[in-house]
Amino acid sequence: MKILRVGAVVVLLAGLVTCAWLFHRRDKPVVWAIWEKGDSSGHPVFVWLNPFRDRSAERVCESALKALRDRDRHGVEVALRGVNGNASLIDHELKNAVKKWSISDIRLQGESAVLYYDAVRVEGDDATPIHIFLKRQGCTWQIVDWEAWY
């Protein structure tokens, strides 16, 4: 019984230390990533994201992706207002709407960020990449570029 209590205390302490370490590193969104040898894409095959990270850039991207999924033209126009040539981009994205997505990597550099998503389109079953480039403007993020593969 005493060994069980000691084990429980050790596990609890290890959990608290891990949480404290993650909280201390909340400015670094990627805790751990695994890259495949010889992969030229530069994207990890597995990424463990910090649960305490600042998600404000992700929220901006999520609202744009949700508007695309719902084929909400006005919502997409609002989300992509900072992207050059966004009228043709919006038309193309609405024709090839996404049905689901997952974040695959985050790269922060000062006031800029690139969020990498794997998205599945309505017309297909294979995930294709979407790279969303953002700039911080004051305390909010603005999408400034969008790269998608179909």
Folded structure, characterized:
The structure is a single chain. The chain is α+β, with helices and mostly antiparallel strands and 150 residues long. The chain folds into two domains: 1-53, no CATH class; 55-150, Roll (Nuclear Transport Factor 2, Chain: A), CATH 3.10.450.50. The protein has four helices and six strands; from the N terminus they run H-E-E-H-H-H-E-E-E-E. The chain has helices at residues 2-24, 56-69, 73-79, 86-95; strands at residues 30-34, 46-49, 98-109, 112-121, 127-137, 140-148. The strands form two sheets. Strands 3-4-5-6 form a four-stranded antiparallel β-sheet, covered by helices on one side. It has a two-stranded antiparallel ribbon with strand order 1-2. The longest helix is centred in the N-terminal third of the chain and has 23 residues, at 2-24. The termini are far apart. 18% of the residues are buried.
Keywords:
single chain, 150 residues, alpha+beta, 2 domains, two-stranded antiparallel sheet, 4 helices, 36% helix, 34% strand
The first-level CATH class of the largest domain is given as Alpha Beta
Question: What topology, given as strand order, has the largest sheet?
Answer: 3-4-5-6
Query: What is the chain-wise order of helices and strands?
Result: HEEHHHEEEE
- What value does the average pLDDT take? 87
Shape: elongated
CATH topology of the largest domain: Nuclear Transport Factor 2, Chain: A
Our count of domains comes out at 2
Beta-strand level of the residues, as a percent range?
Answer: 25-35%
Based on the coordinates given, report the CATH architecture of the largest domain.
Answer: Roll
- The portion of residues assigned to helices is 25-40%
Count of DSSP strands: 6
Enumerate how many helices there are, as a single number. 4
